[in-house]
């Protein structure tokens, strides 16, 4: 939120407190028995409303106590409840329903107990009770509306992020597919041309014959083509993750998640495709846990299987003890689908489902050998 928006809110709160105080004192000025203490109590009961966003409970307590003291001392009309009504509404708006109801009860008790026992007072008390009920209800309605707006905005942002991630993933997969096709077809053909041209040049020179300029041109052009093709393949395969699983865990901790990382086995450099897949799996699992698990503890375990000679498999386990229900299987979204596609392309296995003891688990097994 910008500083200008904050300044506007502060100014609006100050104006609200001033208007409520001015109305209360204006009405009180027409009562014959109003004295300086009454005006002071009205002002003190209204002033805290300027801080209702920062400290709603403290504002509610101050407005209720000072407002009740005013009605006990002066026995005013129903408009004396304005400061307390405002405080009750703002307290209910942030979820303090019980405190708002208790404050309403305290003020109404003070209003009824100190007034003359007439039908007029009873009618006024009933009117005030309706006002306080409306204040609580409208506060709750405003709270629900704000929550709905925040949820709608969050869903829109999530949908946009998901679309962007899906587009980037599809683009990366297409680049890798093109790279594989180029490598499997053009690289092989050009290598054969370059090899045959090199053999022909070597035999010609060995026999003492003049090498035809066309043959030298073929040899040079094929070598240049190989260098250009390798450069193009490097660009197409430039899908390296911006970090490591350990860095993802550190970022998650910095964001407030309770994440533990355990690495076992002979840790060593992985083939690029396996390294990318491991990074994306941990990234997506942490993102899903942050989004759906709530205040849960997350455990990330990475095991380097095998003896370090390139064989074996990489095991990735990401567990959380969140609110996932084992009786309800999740609907695969873009993230889970992308993880499964990555693992399948490498010849591995993936299981992503709620745990029997509660929470969610992601199990990935990736062969160490390069398959792309």
Structure description:
The protein has ten helices and five strands, in the order ααααααααβαββαββ. α5 (97-114) packs antiparallel against α6 (119-206). It has 372 residues and is an alpha+beta fold. The mean pLDDT is 78. It has a five-stranded mixed β-sheet with strand order 1-2-3-5-4, with helices on one face. 65% of the residues lie in helices and 10% in strands. The relative contact order is 0.06. It is elongated.
Number of DSSP E strands: 5
Helix/sheet category:
alpha+beta
Instruction: Summarize the helix and strand pattern as letters.
Output: HHHHHHHHEHEEHEE
Going across the biggest sheet, name each strand in turn. 1-2-3-5-4
Number of helices: 10
What gross morphology would you assign?
A: elongated
Radius of gyration: 36 Å
In whole angstroms, how far apart are the ends? 46 Å
Helix share, percent: 55-70%
Give the biggest beta sheet. Answer: 5 strands, mixed
Percentage of β-strand residues: 5-15%
| Low-pLDDT windows of residues | none
Mean pLDDT: 78
């Amino acid at each position: 939120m910008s500083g200008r928006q904050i300044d506007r809110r502060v100014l609006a709160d100050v104006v609200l407190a001033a208007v409520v105080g001015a109305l209360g004192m204006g009405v009180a000025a027409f009562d014959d028995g109003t004295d300086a203490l009454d005006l002071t109590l009205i002002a003190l009961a209204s002033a805290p409303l300027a801080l209702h966003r920062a400290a709603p409970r403290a504002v509610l307590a101050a407005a209720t106590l000072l407002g009740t003291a005013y009605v006990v001392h002066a026995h005013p009309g129903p408009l004396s409840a304005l400061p307390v009504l405002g405080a009750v509404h703002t307290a209910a708006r942030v979820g303090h329903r019980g405190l708002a109801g208790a404050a309403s009860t305290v003020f109404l008790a003070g209003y009824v107990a100190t007034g003359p026992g007439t039908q007029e007072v009873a009618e006024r008390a009933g009117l005030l009770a309706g006002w306080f009920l409306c204040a609580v209800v409208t506060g709750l309605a405003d709270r629900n509306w704000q929550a709905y707006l925040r949820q709608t905005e969050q869903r829109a942002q999530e949908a946009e992020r998901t679309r962007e991630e899906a587009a980037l993933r599809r683009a990366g997969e297409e680049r890798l597919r093109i790279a594989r096709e180029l490598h499997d077809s053009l690289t092989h053909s050009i290598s054969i041309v370059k090899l045959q041209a090199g053999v022909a040049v070597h035999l010609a020179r060995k026999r003492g014959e003049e090498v035809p300029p066309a043959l030298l041109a073929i040899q040079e052009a094929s070598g240049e083509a190989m260098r250009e093709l390798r450069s193009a393949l490097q660009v197409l395969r430039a899908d390296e993750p911006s970090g490591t699983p350990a860095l993802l865990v550190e970022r998650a901790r910095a964001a407030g998640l309770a994440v533990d990382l355990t690495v076992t086995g002979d840790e060593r450099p992985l083939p690029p495709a396996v390294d990318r897949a491991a990074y994306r799996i941990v990234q997506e699992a942490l993102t899903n846990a942050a989004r759906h698990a709530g205040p849960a503890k997350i455990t990330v375990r990475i095991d380097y299987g095998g003896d370090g000679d390139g064989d074996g498999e990489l095991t990735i386990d990401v567990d959380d003890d969140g609110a996932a229900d084992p009786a309800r299987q999740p609907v695969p979204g873009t993230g889970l689908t992308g993880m499964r596609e990555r693992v399948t392309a490498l010849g591995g296995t993936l299981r992503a489902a709620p745990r029997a003891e509660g929470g969610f688990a992601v199990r990935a097994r990736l062969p160490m050998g390069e398959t792309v």
